[in-house]
Design a protein that fits this description.
It comes from Dactylosporangium aurantiacum. This protein is of the alpha+beta class.
Length: 387
């Protein structure tokens, strides 16, 4: 590791050690997939502390952010994960919308939205999936039209919208040309959430929590200039956003996976199942798979050009690996792992891991769609339904 990266790691580690104490001590290890319900108000304050210290947008290029190198960003995410930093409430704005605005937005849009994202003053959600158009993004039916005042009026339904219940804004893929079909005639709109015409309904999950939501737009308003890219160019902009979804933050995600694996190993040692050769072999296989995930991610991040197929391969690899880890956690725990001891029937970490990972191969692009993308880019064919 280069000396400047090592110094940066020490600085990050010291800052996190100093700040994840006192009122923020309960946040260590909190939040994240399956646990987004935890300490929402305290995590929102934590985000603002991160923003004030300049830790939000470190990878954005100057003048919008620090312009940190890939290596420096990796160090930040890994140190954050090692410290047990809580699940991020601002990640959709920071890692999905902000890079999209930097690449495709106007100067006015960047000036308006990037600073409050960097200060964690405005939180975002993503309005892509719909009933009947989940992984089939080109099939969205939400519509938007300009009214007599020149503003966009958005009508339709989105579903599986993470953190919509706390978001201030939503970037919405909507059909603005009713005569067009599939990926043509779509636009990428920035829609305020806190207005008449927007209703958020939580979706209760297997874990008993509700971090996903349905969002209903009934004539919700977006100013005319809040379209990213040209009207009708939403498909290109939206797919660009998806390419940012699996960036440097995946290294931090994998350290979270490592903690989950360590907990499984600790349980196996404590109850003696580690001595079973089959269980020991499954644990060894999980460890080896995790190393493979890390090396694939590092190779993808070091590529000189974007590799959509590589991002899809990464999703295929970690989603199934994580599901198998959930299954291993339950098997190691034995019959007792299936029981919730008493009201209010709070899940154990192993139970939550198992239940939430059932969705890993669906959300963020289903396995079937990821395989289509790989086929498109590696075999040179066009997947059905995207023409």
């Amino acid at each position: 590791m280069a000396p400047e990266v090592a110094l940066r790691a020490a600085d990050i580690r010291a800052w996190l050690r100093e700040h994840l104490t006192g009122e923020f001590a309960p946040l260590v290890g909190a939040g994240g997939p399956g646990r987004e319900h935890e300490h929402l108000e305290l995590r929102a304050r934590w985000e603002r502390v991160l923003g004030a210290a300049g830790w939000i947008g470190i990878g954005w290029p100057a003048p919008y952010g620090r312009g940190a190198t890939i290596a420096e960003q990796v160090v930040f995410f890994e140190e954050y994960a090692r410290a047990g930093g809580p699940g991020r409430l601002s990640h959709i704005g920071e890692y999905l919308l902000a890079p999209t605005l930097i690449a495709h937005g106007t100067d006015a849009q960047r000036d308006r939205f990037l600073p409050p994202i960097a200060r964690a003053e405005e939180l975002w959600c993503q309005g892509y999936s719909e009933p009947g158009a989940g992984s089939d993004l080109a099939g969205v039916r939400t519509r938007a039209a300009l009214d007599e005042d020149g503003a966009w009026r958005v009508t339709g339904q989105k579903v599986w919208t993470s953190l919509a219940h706390v978001a201030d804004w939503c970037f919405v893929l909507a059909r603005t040309d009713p005569a067009a079909t599939r990926k043509d005639g779509l636009s990428y709109l920035l829609v305020p959430m806190r207005q008449p015409g927007v209703e958020v309904r939580p979706i209760k999950q297997l874990t008993g929590t509700s971090e996903f939501n349905e969002v209903f737009f009934d004539g919700a308003r977006a100013d005319a200039d809040l379209v990213v890219g040209a009207p009708g160019d939403g498909w290109r902009v939206a797919t660009s956003t998806l390419s940012y979804e699996r960036g440097v933050a995946t290294l931090g995600q994998q350290l979270g996976f490592a903690r989950e694996l360590a907990a499984v190993v600790a349980t196996a040692r404590a109850n003696g199942t580690f001595d079973d050769p089959v269980t020991a072999d499954r644990i060894a296989d999980a460890w080896a798979g995790l190393q493979g995930l890390r090396h694939h991610a590092l190779r993808a991040l070091s590529a000189t050009a974007p590799d959509p197929a590589g991002a899809s391969v990464a999703k295929l690899l970690w989603a199934r690996w994580h599901q198998r880890l959930g299954e291993l956690a339950m098997d190691v725990g034995g019959a007792a792992a299936t029981i919730a001891e008493a009201a209010p029937y709070e899940l154990t970490d192993a139970q939550r891991l198992f239940l939430f990972t059932r969705a890993d191969t669906i959300y963020g692009g289903s396995d079937e769609i990821q395989r289509n993308i790989v086929a498109d880019h590696v075999l040179g064919r066009t997947p059905r339904g995207t023409r």
